[in-house]
From TrEMBL, chain A:
GO terms (BP aspect): protein repair
InterPro entries the record matches: MsrP (IPR022867), OxRdtase_Mopterin-bd_dom (IPR000572), OxRdtase_Mopterin-bd_sf (IPR036374)
Family: Belongs to the MsrP family.
Residues reported in the UniProt entry to bind Mo-molybdopterin: 67, 70-71, 125, 160, 210, 215, 226-228
EC number: 1.8.5.-
Gene expressing this chain: msrP
Domain Oxidoreductase molybdopterin-binding, first and last residues per copy: 87-244
Assembly: Heterodimer of a catalytic subunit (MsrP) and a heme-binding subunit (MsrQ).
Record protein name field: Protein-methionine-sulfoxide reductase catalytic subunit MsrP
UniProt cofactor(s): Mo-molybdopterin
Recorded GO MF terms: metal ion binding; molybdopterin cofactor binding; oxidoreductase activity, acting on a sulfur group of donors, quinone or similar compound as acceptor
Species of the source: Tanticharoenia sakaeratensis NBRC 103193
Function, as annotated: Part of the MsrPQ system that repairs oxidized periplasmic proteins containing methionine sulfoxide residues (Met-O), using respiratory chain electrons. Thus protects these proteins from oxidative-stress damage caused by reactive species of oxygen and chlorine generated by the host defense mechanisms. MsrPQ is essential for the maintenance of envelope integrity under bleach stress, rescuing a wide series of structurally unrelated periplasmic proteins from methionine oxidation.
Lineage, uppermost ranks: Bacteria, Pseudomonadati, Pseudomonadota, Alphaproteobacteria, Acetobacterales
Keyword match Secreted: no
UniProtKB/TrEMBL annotation, chain B:
NCBIfam families, per database record: PRK05419.1-5
Entry's family note: Belongs to the MsrQ family.
Membrane-protein topology: Multi-pass membrane protein
Oligomer status and interactors: Heterodimer of a catalytic subunit (MsrP) and a heme-binding subunit (MsrQ).
GO molecular function, one term: heme binding
UniProt keyword Electron transport, yes or no: yes
Listed GO biological process terms: protein repair
Keywords per UniProt: Cell membrane, Electron transport, Flavoprotein, FMN, Heme, Iron, Membrane, Metal-binding, Transmembrane, Transmembrane helix, Transport
Names of required cofactors: FMN; heme b
Classification via InterPro entries: Fe3_Rdtase_TM_dom, MsrQ-like
Name assigned to this protein: Protein-methionine-sulfoxide reductase heme-binding subunit MsrQ
Superkingdom of origin organism: Bacteria
Amino acid sequence: MTVFRYPTPKGSDITPRETYLSRRSIMAGLAAAPFGQSAHAAPLPTKTGPFSGALTPTDKQDVTHFNNFYEFGMDKSDPAENSGAFKPMPWTLRIEGEVAEPQTIDIAALIAQGGIEQRIYRMRCVEAWSMVIPWDGIPLAAILKRANPLGSARYVAFESVHRPSEMPGQNGGFGSLDWPYVEGLRLDEAMNPLTFLALGIYGETLPNQNGAPVRLVVPWKYGFKGIKSIVRIRLTKDQPPTTWQRMAPDEYGFYANVNPDVDHPRWSQASERVIGSSSLFGEKRQPTLMFNGYADQVASLYTGMDLRHFY
Amino acid sequence: MPIRLPHSTPAWIFVISTERPKLARCTWTWRAIPSWPLYPLGLIPAVWLFWRGVEGHLGADPVGTFEKMLGLWAIRFLAASLVISPIRWVTGISLLKYRRALGLLAFIYVVLHVTAYVWLDIGFNDAILIRDITRRPFIILGALALLALIPLALTSNRLSIRKLGRRWSRLHRLVYLVAILAGIHLFLAFKRPTPTSELYDGLLAALLLARVVHGAFSGRRRVVRSG
């Protein structure tokens, strides 16, 4: 059993006062600006959570209009355009499997209970681009503990909603995935304090295109691990299948940890394009960090593992 | 002598492969339209994309969009240059005089596509470039397609056609290799085959298959004649 060590932030990781104050004013401006709002976006009362570091969030417009959510189409702009008919409320999340007390959690009730934290995390897509997203939500561990996992539970399997009538991408066609989308984590990964169940972004409930009403955020793994619109979490004895691994096992592994030294067969993972340059000549490219910059928090989970083999 | 319809050949293929081009009847209308306007017209998408990009209207990932769209236009012009012959086989209409412009436009878009990648995307970072070009089949295939296009672009002038004679046609069969390389490169550009990649890959495959079918049946016809 791996022991989690709370990370001690370096001096350089702590945001100077003037920076965070100016950032708050940016955020206030963003909240007031008339961006393409989702019909369902409602304010979420949040408190500042740990692990946010000195990160500047990507523009809300980009975070909500540059999405991979194949249930609504394969282009990055499709989810924002095609998710209008999706109804994220009411919603229940089922926790079952190797647990002593299976749970059915009503998402509206969960939000009403409060205690929602904001965490600003790096988001690295397997397609070699990245963003910084201010998530609002609760640690996954807090939810899993409610169900009282049994000693036999070793993995956590996640399942997305299957609603072809509201999700046009689920009606088959070219290059379609097998629905519903499924993902998985090892139990110790799921219980890591970084692993987060997001209920909102930018202080509001999740827009449909970002995985409303509840999605997974695992910031040290590639973005496709962050399964959206979750209906079922099942604790299991055996490693569960994951959608992309099933589709192309030589390209997408179960672990999918961000790793600049293990290239995707098509893309180099050594560097990443930072989303949010406003024009052709403003692109930023930065080196990709091991575990997406969260090595202090998670490297110990993989001690002794060959990460080239378990990619 | 009369040509008999082979039992194994579907009628439509037989018609495509045996019908004589009706050049005299069809070419006069096309002769009136010169091919040079294709160059400025063909470059409109590049200018438009560039302007949209500079103005900040290409979305959250302007460089990625610019790069992909230039590549897609290269594929479109490549397919357009490959559709000229099948049109002649099927309808007898010869658009041959426009093929050079279409081929050169494909080349120009490939050069712009690669420039966008090397300059705007990776910012002339030779470490990334070398790593990409040695380790990523996706980039290697694209680079090979560019290499194969260079001799075609260089010999696309009248002088080369005259000087090289029969060897010119043989050299320009390299375009089939370019189509195969570009098709795989396009396929690999997306995590899953998208409607766009399937459409253009299907089109390139159909255009190459048309050559195979036409070659097989015109070859058979020659045998019939000599016998």
